[in-house]
Amino acid sequence: MQDIENYQKKKQFLVCVDSDGCAMDTMDIKHKKCFGPCLVEVWNLQQWEEEILNRWYEINLYSELRGINRFKGLAMALKEINETYIVIEALDRFLDWVKETKELSNESLMKQISKNRTVCLEKALDWSERLNQRIKELLPREKMPFANVKDVLEQVHQYADIAIVSSANYEAVREEWLHNGLLQHIDLLLSQNIGSKSHCIHELLEKGYDTNHVIMIGDAPGDEKAASENHVLFYPILVKQEAKSWNEFIEHAFGKFLQQDFRDDSIYYKKKFYDNFVQKERG
Questions:
Q1: CA dist 112 to 65, 82, 171, 248, Å?
Q2: How many helices (H) and strands (E) does the chain have?
Q3: Which of 188, 171, 173 is nearest to 16 (CA)?
Q4: pLDDT of residue 232
Q5: Distance in Å from the first CA to the final CA of the chain
Q6: Biggest alpha carbon distance in the chain?
Q7: pLDDT number for residue 283
Q8: pLDDT score at 2
Q9: 39 neighbors 33 (Cβ within 8 angstroms)
Q10: For the range 71-77, what are the long-range contacts, defined as Cβ-Cβ under 8 Å and sequence gap of 24 or more?
Q11: pTM
Q12: Bridge-partner residues for 14, per DSSP?
């Protein structure tokens, strides 16, 4: 697997694909078995566990913030916990790091701790490392791709380069895609250690792709925003309609994308995408 510095485009077209909740059916289980429970454990929040976990799932799974970077999601949760339940010691230092850092990753957080060790920063790192370990311990059957994904990627790769663009942990994404036989159809894996999804797409465009030849496939508003900020196309994988969405991509959207006739359709798909989130929030 190449790194971004040495990557060279092979085809005129590029398809960027998010991992958790988009290609991989891992979003719900990771938040419900790893992210949320580790939050409760690290900050000793068992007294309010049900309320805090429900709020975590609401934000990270069923709202327009779905797919938010783990540390941004943690910052939001800790602010609410600080205001509603208990005081979070040295919270401001963690919030400042989230706001100011160029890289929201464990490595960046460790560098910050080496400069300015505080309780909240250390607990945030502990939380992130714990959930990474918990993800590793998930059973193989709990880390499977959605139906149709493998076949779609195989077909797409005949005509386009494919890059994973994810805000998740690099090692976890690589292991999951490799285990499920998907990595053979991928040219590049970009994750949280590279930067935001918007930054990753920008770096890919620097390799010589035309914006009309690039499409981002994602399940979260952050994916659509990253595409929009770089003036590339976007195709949504709808929550609870993932297999159908992938099937529609290969049967309808991909051909139009290759013919450079997808921009008008993208308006329809974006509306359908955001309407789906409104329904989830109301439901």
A1: 26, 22, 22, 44
A2: 14, 5
A3: 188
A4: 96
A5: 42
A6: 57
A7: 45
A8: 67
A9: no
A10: 71/98, 71/104, 71/109, 71/124, 71/128, 72/98, 72/104, 73/35, 74/39, 74/98, 74/124, 74/127, 77/39, 77/52
A11: 0.85
A12: 161, 214
77 membership: H or E segment, kind and range: helix 70-84
* CA atoms lying within 13 Å on the CB side of residue 179: 16
Query: What pLDDT does 62 receive?
Result: 84
Which conformational region is residue 146 in: left (phi greater than 0), alpha (psi within -120 to 50 degrees), or beta?
A: beta
Residue-level pLDDT at 68 = 87
As averages over each run of 10 residues, the pLDDT of the chain (283 residues) reads 86 97 95 97 98 94 86 96 97 97 91 95 98 93 94 97 93 93 95 88 97 95 94 94 95 95 86 74 45
Q: Which two tokens stand for residue 157?
A: 């790769």
What is the structure's pLDDT at 282?
A: 40
